[in-house]
Design brief:
Helix content: 55-70%
Number of domains: 1
Number of strands: 2
Distance between the termini: 36 Å
Strand order of the largest sheet: 1-2
Order of helices and strands: HHHHHHEEHHHHHHHHHH
């Protein structure tokens, strides 16, 4: 515990959680090539879809709604100047945990924990229940839990936006598998809701709680992110409108996001067209680069042209990290 009573993830706890995730994956593939989940998992099935990009803006803004996360990004990242770099860094870690070999996934977890140990300070602005000047640390369980939850919740939302809804059994399986990735974030199972229904309840209650609150800097970062500031990639109007429509009314107001009739029309048009267009995509474009790379790794091959090209979009590099330049796997 820190002085304020927040529960922090210790180095030993992080290593214990990583070891537990490795044990859970031990029977999947002795070589470690299949990583933590493997091709038969619902985690691969959901996260391979490029539709996840549709939910990325929502997840990012919900993370910014946590004063600790927003302040940490303001003080320790380049989000204001390079929002796409933030996008790449997030997906580089998450996709390595999901689609990397066992060695790659655990290396990503250790890097995430190590990076977080240096992210601490005091809030420059009070918001929600957190007072100005109060202490924050990135390796704090409640903040980590919220970041993790935004990724899981937004992934399902984006998936079901373009593909048939998941069954109760599939959602239960996805959440059960996600607990393994949560361990790589430093989250013990007992700190998380027990099932999918409980998880959704947690998310909706958090959205209405004083644990969240948009600071002035968070509002500026959100505007920067949605405008594509500092990059040639400019999110189209329909994407900004869709992101806004997926947020609780509270955050539309706190982030000062436009929601006039033009925005509502753009969101409605996106809802009508995107599903049809997405399902017509060839697998090379529909599935993300890290998934293509993982499939090739299972065959003992290096990432090909398609995987490298789509990897550059998703993670800002031609291949997943921690694999070694000369090895096709692990």
């Amino acid at each position: 515990m820190d002085s304020a009573g927040s529960q922090l993830v210790s180095p030993s706890a992080s290593e214990s959680l990583i070891a537990g995730a490795v044990r859970a994956a031990a029977g999947l593939d002795p070589s470690g090539r299949a990583g933590l989940f493997g091709p038969g998992s619902i985690t691969w099935r959901i996260n391979r879809e490029s539709a996840l990009f549709l939910g990325a803006g929502r997840a990012a803004l919900l993370q910014l709604a946590h004063p600790w996360v927003a302040t940490a990004l303001e003080h320790h990242s380049t989000l204001m100047r390079r929002p796409i770099a933030r996008f790449h860094s997030t997906f580089r870690i998450v996709f390595t945990m999901v689609f990397g070999s066992l060695d790659q996934a655990t290396a990503a977890a250790r890097q995430l924990y190590s990076t977080h140990t240096y992210i601490k300070g005091e809030l420059a602005e009070g918001a929600g229940r957190f007072a100005h000047g109060s202490h924050y640390e990135a390796n704090e369980i409640a903040a980590l839990r919220w970041v993790f939850a935004t990724l899981i919740d937004s992934a399902v939302l984006a998936y079901e936006f373009v593909l048939p809804p998941l069954s109760e059994a599939e959602l239960a399986a996805y959440y059960a598998e996600s607990l393994t990735m949560a361990a790589l974030f430093g989250l013990p199972r007992e700190t998380l809701p027990p099932d999918w229904k409980g998880f959704l309840t947690y998310c909706r209650e958090m959205e209405q709680s004083d644990q969240l609150g948009v600071t002035t800097s968070a509002r500026a970062m959100a505007q920067s992110l949605l405008s594509g500031a500092g990059t040639w990639i400019k999110p189209p109007h329909w994407y900004r409108a869709l992101t806004t429509g997926w947020l609780a009314p509270r955050f539309r107001q706190e982030f000062a996001l436009p929601s006039g009739w033009r925005d509502q029309a753009a969101e409605a048009l996106a809802r009508r067209r995107i599903t049809r267009l997405f399902r017509a995509l060839p697998q090379a474009a529909r599935f993300v680069g890290p998934y293509h790379e993982a499939q090739l790794r299972l065959k003992g091959r290096h990432p090909g042209m398609v995987a490298r090209a789509t990897n550059r979009f998703w993670i800002g590099a031609p291949r997943l990290p921690f694999g070694g330049a000369d090895r096709p796997f692990g």
